[in-house]
């Protein structure tokens, strides 16, 4: 199905149920020289994934190992990335954007309840379950970390989506994921980055100063409620909405009734 770094992903079938799954196969770190950091990161990811159980988060069914490989049995998703859909569409109409943002918020609310930060939220890590492009799953917890016992420090993730407190080398928590969702929402609504300076230093400066704008003509027909939602996330960590608070924002609440019934039902689980 695909390869990435030191792993390969293959499709498998559960012998008893016939259920199709994805199997991520990695070389056993006992056979790899100087792999202590990679091994530590791998086991940390496994421990984080084991804590998660939510319909908007990729399911991990099982884990096996032998003398040569590790095998992680995952939910098989037939859809493509949100990134691909943004490229194809250019931008999203607001009700459709809300349907996706709502599901990401539910996933982030679940993570926050476990004091887990995803730390690499971006369109490439939001995957559709099938070609109807209705339901999504949050994937890739390779950068995720717990902030249960203490706040986090250090640069993690993809620079265009990094929160200002991270770039400033300050302590941070799950609200960095909410900043990233603000950037994702901005992209979905207009088709371009909120922060996209060609020079990396200028990019970081723009993020730290929270310097962005709703440019014309891309934002001319976008509602004030949508802009208010983006503003409520692309702000300082104290003022920034949590996932639970963002789920009650007017833009989400007003557009949710127009979402597919399977999406609305997720909030009742």
From TrEMBL:
SUPFAM superfamilies tied to this protein: Protein kinase-like (PK-like) (SSF56112)
What are the entry keywords? Answer: ATP-binding, Kinase, Nucleotide-binding, Serine/threonine-protein kinase, Transferase
Q: Which PROSITE patterns match?
A: PROTEIN_KINASE_DOM, PROTEIN_KINASE_ST
Q: Which parts of the sequence belong to the Protein kinase domain? A: 1-252
EC numbers on record: 2.7.11.1
Fetch the CDD domains from UniProt: STKc_CAMK
| Entry GO MF terms | ATP binding; protein serine/threonine kinase activity
Q: Which PANTHER family match?
A: SERINE/THREONINE-PROTEIN KINASE
* UniProt-recorded name of the protein: non-specific serine/threonine protein kinase
Supply the source organism for this entry.
Arcella intermedia
Question: What broad taxonomic lineage does this protein's source fall under?
Answer: Eukaryota, Amoebozoa, Tubulinea, Elardia, Arcellinida
């Amino acid at each position: 199905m695909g390869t990435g770094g030191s792993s390969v992903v293959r499709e498998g079938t559960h012998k008893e149920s016939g259920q199709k799954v994805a199997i991520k196969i990695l070389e056993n770190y006992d056979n790899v020289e100087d792999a202590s950091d990679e091994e530590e990161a791998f086991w940390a990811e496994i421990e984080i994934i084991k804590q998660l159980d939510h319909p908007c988060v990729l399911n991990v069914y099982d884990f096996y190992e032998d003398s040569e490989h590790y095998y992680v049995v995952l939910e098989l998703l037939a859809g493509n990335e949100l990134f691909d859909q943004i490229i194809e569409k250019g931008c999203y109409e607001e009700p459709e954007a809300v349907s996706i943002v709502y599901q990401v918020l539910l996933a982030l609310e679940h993570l926050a309840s476990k004091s887990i930060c995803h730390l690499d939220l971006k369109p490439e890590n939001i995957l559709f379950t099938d070609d109807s492009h209705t339901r999504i799953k949050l994937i890739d917890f390779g950068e995720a970390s717990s902030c249960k016992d203490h706040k986090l420090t250090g640069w993690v993730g993809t620079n265009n989506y990094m929160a200002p407190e991270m770039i400033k080398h300050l302590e941070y928590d799950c609200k960095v994921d909410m900043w990233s969702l603000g950037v994702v929402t901005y992209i979905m609504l207009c088709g371009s980055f909120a922060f996209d300076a060609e020079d990396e230093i200028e990019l970081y400066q723009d993020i730290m100063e929270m310097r962005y704008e709703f440019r014309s003509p891309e934002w001319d027909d976008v509602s004030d409620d949508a802009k208010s939602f983006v503003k409520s996330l692309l702000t300082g960590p104290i003022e920034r909405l949590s996932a639970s608070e963002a789920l009650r924002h007017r833009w989400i609440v007003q557009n949710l009734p127009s979402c597919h019934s399977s999406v609305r039902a997720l909030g009742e689980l």
